[in-house]
Amino acid sequence: MAHTEKIAHLKSEAHFDLAIGERGRLVLPAPVRRRLNLHPGDKLTLTVAEDGAMRLESRRLALRRLRGSFSHLGPGMVEELIEERRAEARREQKS
To answer: Is residue 11 scored above 70 in pLDDT?
Structure first.
């Protein structure tokens, strides 16, 4: 599985060409893993839009985003919602 880094940087964006390897696997380039502080075993979420566009984000980022979207509920409620989501994720992993 090989990738090549494009020399196209728009502000803080970086673009990479990836190849699908055996069994449908993708390898994230080392600069991406370093920039996002990703390590083996980290969980990622792939979202596929109706138009076929894909977005890949770490669960850490998704939790931060959710935390912000519920901030208007007050500090106690946000922690409670996050803990409920974590408990749900633990149940999903056991299934």
So the answer is: no
- What is the full DSSP assignment across 32-72? HHHHTT--TT--EEEEE-TTS-EEEEEHHHHHHHHHHHTGG
Residue pair 79/68 in contact (Cβ under 8 Å)? The answer is: no
Task: Name the nearest CA neighbour of 33 among 56, 1, 67.
Answer: 56
Q: What is the DSSP letter of 17?
A: E
Backbone dihedral region for residue 42 (phi beyond 0: left; psi -120 to 50: alpha; all else: beta): beta
| Whole-number percent of the chain with pLDDT over 90 | 24
Q: Which two tokens stand for residue 9?
A: 């940087």
pTM listed for this prediction: 0.52
